[in-house]
Automatic annotation (TrEMBL):
It comes from the Eukaryota. Residues 53-133 form the Dynamin-type G domain. One of its GO terms (cellular component) is endomembrane system. It is found in: Endomembrane system. Keywords: Membrane. The keyword Membrane applies. The keyword Membrane applies. This is Dynamin-type G domain-containing protein. Pfam families: Dynamin_N (PF00350), EHD_N (PF16880). InterPro entries: Dynamin_N, EHD_N, G_DYNAMIN_dom, P-loop_NTPase. Its main location: membrane. It comes from Patagioenas fasciata monilis. One of its GO terms (molecular function) is GTP binding. It is a peripheral membrane protein.
Length: 133
């Protein structure tokens, strides 16, 4: 009947510990070879890295200035955001990533894109003008 429905007794199922590990393995074994064969990374976006799978999900907040984005984030976090201020004119017109950590601090954008543990390496094409703002 269907060849894909036949049980193959010689092939043992691959076990994975987490969903993230399974997705990472599936991407590297099945999807990445197809992307490389069709040169997907040459004209669209670079290949996914381990940090893209291992990090927490992210939420993008964007919109016109003075619409309450910073106030909304401050309300959710129940604390001030380092380096931010609120005003009627564009005050927080920059790239900001707020992440959980053991200590508070500010890391420059151009340092984030070279950290292999962070999922920001693909922002490199936007240049230092974007990352330093």
């Amino acid at each position: 009947m269907f060849s894909w429905m036949r049980k193959n007794p010689k092939k043992s199922p691959e076990t994975v510990q987490t969903v993230t590990e399974g997705l990472k393995n599936l991407y590297k074994k099945k999807l990445l070879p197809v992307e490389e064969f069709y040169r997907f990374h040459d004209f669209h976006s670079p290949a996914l890295e381990d940090a893209d799978f291992d990090n927490k999900p992210m939420i993008l907040v964007m919109g016109q200035y003075s619409t309450g984005k910073t106030s909304f984030i401050r309300y959710l976090l129940e604390q001030e955001i380092p380096g931010s201020r609120i005003g009627p004119e564009p005050t927080t017109d920059s790239f900001v990533a707020i992440m959980h950590g053991d200590s508070e601090g500010v890391t420059p954008g151009n340092a984030l894109i070279v950290d292999p543990q962070k999922p920001f390496r693909q922002l490199h094409p936007f240049g230092n003008g974007f990352l330093k703002r």
